[in-house]
Every structure is written in structure tokens, then in C-alpha cells.
Amino acid sequence: MGRELNRLATKTVQALGKGKFCDGGGLWLTKADQRRGKWSFRFMMAGRAREMGLGIWPDTSLAEARRKAEDARAKTREGLDPILERDRARRDMRRNLHLLEDVARDAFEARKAELKGDGKAGRWFSPLALHVLPKLGKMPVIEVDQIAIRDCLAPIWHKKGDTARKAVNRLSIVLRHAAALGLDVDLQATEKAKALLGKSRAISRNIPALPWPEVPGFYESLSDGTVTHLALRLLILTGVRSAPLRFIREEQIDGDVWTIPAEAMKGRKGATESFRVPLSAEALSIIDAARRHSRDGFLFPSVRKGVISDATMSRLMERRGMEARPHGFRSSLRDWLAECTDAPHEVAETMLGHATGGAVVKAYRRTDFLEQRRALLERWAGHVTGGAGQVVKLAGAGK
Question: What is the fold, at CATH topology level, of the domain defined by 100-197?
């Protein structure tokens, strides 16, 4: 490489036409024509001639090209290959500049297979998308510390306690995912942030439930035979959650037993146990009435496509000025079991699909108390209907 430096001048570079021109010290300009060119640095490494691109002219000026060439020469004096060193620096930059929003989405994709409905039903990503990423999403994940998390969640910490708790838990999972990617993150950042935020003053509120003595009156009012009325009636009679009820299919019913598939039960995908629900005579009559509405195998289809939504049932109760919501009927049933029956705790909890006992107990217990639950649900149906099943007027009948 020539030792004479700075042979070119800015005006000279502008005037040069097509050709290759040396500025000295290994810096070359190759011009395609008078308007376009590229800078390169030529050097010897381990007995081999090497050439390193330094940028496009005129975007990269003569002065900038000289600075880059001097940096490269410094590397060669240390016995380092400037091309390899630049590639390593770029990899380190990409590694260290992972944005939180990108890592968060990657963590969600990796975890999705474990979540019910791929995380959509439970809106796993929502706390991050609504309360964390708008403020911290563009921050490199390695820079996310307890101060940033505290400042981000402070506005909701004492107002929306449950949401804030979910957000900080999801963020902790994201940071663990970042660590697994090899990023230098502070895994204790979320715990430190919680210490800075203090104990939340937000009051956790249970989903409002209709007191069990008032359920018969509401049940009786659901007499139009519409999909919404029938779905709410069966929800009340069985004590199941909204999702498996809304997605109930004809083939899941065998005689007087409804078997909910394992993947439809609350929890993670990959569950191995289905759940049997004994159907009272009243429940069977509701199912029979719902069959005339069935579409694509679903007993409770929506007007357009798919199945009835949870919001549809909730809106019916809301329009009536009720605070209670559909999910609350599980509490109504549970309170009735506690106050009006002698059902053992394990049986009452099983009626709601709750797991009871430790791992050892569950490993040895093989019963799901089907017959005990059948008798209790018949009694519950008797309470709900006032002692006798109510006549259901089929929607559209008599028109």
C-alpha cells in the first residue's frame, strides 16, 4: 500500500470520470462515471490481498472515507483483519440492540403453543401490548431496568392492579426469554420494579354473580328460545365456563353426559384429561331445543359465522341493568352447593372443573364423582326451575 496519504481533493474527486484512483494509504475510489463511485480499503493480511468496502460516493465523503481507512489501518497495525472486526462489531450491535417489542413478540410466539387458543382466548399478549410496549417497546431490551418498568406501570399500579400484575409477570417472561437468547438482561428488573412501586392499593374484584336465590327468576325470563337464551340456560344448569359452552358440539353429547375435550378446558394446551358433565333432564331439554339452531355441528352458532360470543350473553344481562355476568353463575352454583347441600368439598369443586388435592392425591384418585354430581345437578335444576322445568318457546315458532 502507498504511504503517501491524501493525494485526492474534494473538487478533484467531483471532476474525475470513470476509473480507479488512489488517495494513498490503501484508500481507493472506483468511479463508474462522474456522478457515482465507491470507496474501498486495500490491505495485506496473512500474505493475502484483501479489499474492504467503505461506502458509496458521494454519500460517503472524502473526509469520512479517510476516517474509515485510518480506523482500518489501525486494525492492521494490531494484526487484526478489519473486515472480520467490522463483521464482529455488527453482530454485537445486532445482539445488543434487540428491541423489547421484538423480543416480546418472539417470546409470545415461542410460548403460544402452551396457551389455550394459542394465547388469543386469554389475550396473553394484551397487557404488554396495551401498557408496556407503547412506552418501552422501542428500547433495547438490555436497557430495560427497574426504573423504566416502574415509570411505565406507575399510572396503572394502584388503579388496575390485576392488569398491572399481569403486565409485570408477562414482562418477566420476556426478560427470561431474552436471557435465553444470550442477551445481557437484568432478570431481577421486574422484582426490583415491584419493590419500587410498593404494594398495590387496587382492589381485586370478582366477576359479579347473581345470588343463588335470584337465579330461578332470571332463568324463567330466558324463555324466548333464541340461541342467547338457550345458551344462558344451559350455562346456568351445568356450571361450566363460557368457552366450552359456546363451542359445544353435537358429537360431544352421549346420552345424558357431555364430554368437554381436554383442549377446551381452562388451562394450557396439551392437557390430557377431558371433563364429563352429567346432564339433568332440564339440560337435555335445552339441548334438544338448541338443535334446531345448530350449524356446522355447533349448537349455539352466531348470526353470521362461528359461535355465539361471550359478549352477546353479557350484553343481554347488561341491557337488563344487571351487574352480574354469565361467568358469575358458577359462583351462584358454588354458593348454593355450600349453603343448601352437604356436598363434600372435593365433589363441589369438581362440579366447577376445579382440580383439588396435591399431586399425590390426584395421582391416586381415579374418580370424577360423576354420579354424585349428577344427583346434585338434578337438584340444582329443580331449584333453578322452581321445581319443574319451564316451557321454552322456540324462536320463530308459530309465525
Answer: DNA polymerase; domain 1 (1.10.150)
Spatial CA neighbour of 369 closest among 252, 284, 275, 242: 275
Residue 241 has pLDDT above 50, yes or no: yes
212-384 adopts what CATH topology?
A: hpI Integrase; Chain A (1.10.443)
The rounded distance, in Å, linking the Cα atoms of 196 and 153 is: 11
Instruction: Work out the end-to-end distance of the chain between its first and last CA atoms, rounded to an integer number of angstroms.
Output: 97
230/286 Cα distance (integer angstroms): 6
Report the candidate in 194, 207, 122, 208 with the shortest Cα–Cα distance to residue 158: 194
The domains of the chain are located at: 10-96, 100-197, 212-384
Phi-psi category of residue 184: left, alpha or beta, with phi > 0 → left and psi -120 to 50 → alpha: beta
Model confidence pLDDT, tens digit, residues 152-208: 999 999 988 889 999 999 999 999 999 998 888 999 999 999 999 998 876 656 678
Distance of alpha carbon 335 from alpha carbon 337, whole angstroms: 5
Instruction: Record the pTM.
Output: 0.54
